[in-house]
Design brief:
Structural class: mainly alpha
Strand content: under 5%
Number of strands: 0
Distance between the termini: 43 Å
Order of helices and strands: HHHHHHHHHHHHH
Shape: globular
Length: about 300
């Protein structure tokens, strides 16, 4: 059991919940202000679905990198993987990937049934297709003949699925509408999520080069990947500030939602520490830190919008 828990990579779970929290509680703020009701059951199911997607992705990545030999070069580095280290066989991991793909699909259908039946059948089927796309994206990062993670496309997929799909999709579950300004916080979460992936790829840049995994960080080189990382970490709070401004919080004198800006201080300190790193392996502790800060950004904005 210990090996399976390690393979699930629990430290990645806070990041996966951030988009759901962001989209759901922005929806709650708008629904309640308009006299409507917000369903906690849908929120709980959405969290369950995204956690299943994330664990599926982690198992699939462990399996895909393990059978390709990519992780063999990392066994003595920052993070051991279960298949590469031999603690879990490839056959066992493949079965677990299949199991979590099935569980993810069942949970997705259950969530969409709660959110859309019986009045929104067209939206139900559209979101079923989107759920299948999420499952395939979770598996396809390292599994298959041409996994997109090996082609330098991981950043695009993470930005789209962890940012745009997660925030906008969860917002739509509650509101049944799409408002253009939801793209602003969705982009913020997407950039923070991409920053985590880029840190991961910068950390593994040497082993990825040796194994032929051509991530975007490897294609750019460590120096320019660092510049890319700093940009990804600088813009999210600016985007949140723009979102609050667009919605009139500055002119109306409602300042509680600006609690989220307190993160400016830890994020600035973290960026400075990241910029000071010279050895790729020293980046490993920052993956967890960026994930937690992303979750805090979502929670603080949700709290400021809804409870003051």
């Amino acid at each position: 059991m210990k090996d399976w828990i390690h393979a699930a990579r629990l430290r990645t779970l806070p990041l996966s919940m951030s988009g759901i929290i962001m989209g759901s509680f922005i929806a709650r703020w708008r629904i309640v202000n308009n006299g409507g009701t917000w369903d906690w059951t849908i929120f709980a199911m959405a969290i369950l679905v995204t956690l299943l997607y994330q664990i599926l992705s982690n198992f699939a990545n462990d399996y895909g990198d393990g059978i390709k030999g990519t992780d063999t070069l990392r066994v003595n580095e920052a993070e051991q993987r279960a298949v590469a280290s031999g603690r879990i066989t490839a056959a066992q991991m493949k079965k677990m990937v299949v199991l979590f793909a099935i569980l993810s699909f069942i949970a997705t259908v259950a969530l969409l049934y709660l959110a859309f039946f019986p009045d929104y059948l067209r939206e139900f089927w559209i979101f079923v297709g989107l759920g299948i796309a999420c499952i395939l994206a979770a598996i396809g990062y390292t599994v298959g003949k041409k996994p997109y993670g090996y082609l330098g496309l991981g950043d695009v997929f993470v930005f789209v699925f962890f940012g745009l799909v997660s925030v906008c999709g969860s917002y739509f579950l509650f509101t049944k509408t799409f408002d253009w300004d939801i793209l602003i916080p969705a982009t913020a979460v997407g950039m923070m999520s991409t920053a985590v992936l880029n840190l991961n790829n910068m950390r593994d840049i040497r082993s990825d080069a040796a194994s032929g995994k051509k991530t975007l960080a490897l294609r750019m080189g460590f120096k320019y990947a660092m510049v890319y990382e700093i940009v990804l970490l600088m813009l999210p709070l600016i985007l949140i500030l723009i979102f609050l401004g667009v919605n009139g919080f500055i002119t109306e004198g409602k300042y509680y939602p600006f609690l989220v800006m307190i993160l400016l201080f830890p994020m600035t300190a973290m960026r400075r520490k990241i910029m000071a790193v010279k050895e790729p392996k020293e980046l490993d502790p920052f993956l967890k830190q960026v994930g937690i800060l992303t979750l805090m950004m979502a929670v603080l904005l949700a709290f400021g919008l809804n409870y003051f």
